[in-house]
Amino acid sequence: MELVGLIPAAGKASRLGKIDRSKEILEVDFQGKKQVISKFLIENYKIAGIQKICFVLRNGKWDIPDYYINGAKFGINIAYFLAQYPYGVPFTLNEALPFLKHNYVALGFPDMYVDPPDIFKVLYQKIVQSQADLILGLFPIETRSKWDMVEFNQNGKIKDIIIKPLKTELKYGWSVAVWSPVFTEFLEQKVHFLLKENEKERIEMEGQLKREIYPGDIFREFIQAGNKTDYVTFEEGKCIDLGTWEDFNKFNYGE
To answer: CB 146: neighbour CB atoms within 10 A?
Structure first.
């Protein structure tokens, strides 16, 4: 099976306020050169041997295909899909899933800088060797209220994912993933079920504080259903969220 890269890019960049372009093509200074932030992810995909990338866009974000076109000048093949439902990342990803059913899928985020550069190569090797259906890339996290934190059982296996906890002693959060066709089918069925059950309403997680559904919610259900999941921990790695001005300016200007 081939490894294909998936890029959700349907968000409104609300955390950045009003900007004159899609956040995915905002520029930063990196190693003495200007670079759009989504190119970090594309380069990581290329290092893993990925030759095909699927962008899923929101209507109006045409500056992204204007920049990348078909990907040829960046040494990659790029296809574009249009998101129908503004309910969160799982619904965005679902637009491309019918075209990915027989492949391994790599998921990264175009407003995230992750290191090491070969992270998806490592995760791909892990999923092939372990024969798991979902592999998460984990990092030590400081601002834990902004991340999906991972809880382990006594055997060191993933037990649960805690979504953006206000307070926790958990140390590791996930930032990237690679999965098999088994998880693709699980995600597709879950999204179709949610859309069918909530035809006329915005789909949100139930509870005291309603919120959109995150990929971590779907990963959590997959894990708790007993499916084989594994992980790789990058103790010395970095994951920097460039989708906020605070971290964007720290990365770009060292503020």
So the answer is: 14
The domain ranges of the chain are: 3-11+18-253
Length of the chain: 255
0.85 exceeded by pTM: yes
The closest of 79, 94, 100, 111 to 9, measured between CA atoms, is: 111
Burial class (CB in 10 A: 0-12, 13-18, 19+), 74: middle
Is 166 in a helix, a strand, or coil?
coil
Question: Shortest CA distance to 9 belongs to which of 121, 76, 96?
Answer: 96
- Give pLDDT tens digits for 88-118: 899 999 999 999 999 999 999 999 999 999 9
Q: Considering the domain 3-11+18-253, what is its CATH architecture?
A: Alpha-Beta Complex (3.90)
Which residues neighbour 200 within 8 Å (Cβ) at sequence distance 6 or greater?
Answer: none
What is the maximum alpha-carbon separation in the chain?
51
**CA–CA separation, 23 vs 40, rounded Å?**
13
Rg value, the chain, Cα: 17
Residue for token pair 């929101």? 58
DSSP summary character for residue 230? E
173, 143 contact by CB (below 8 A): no
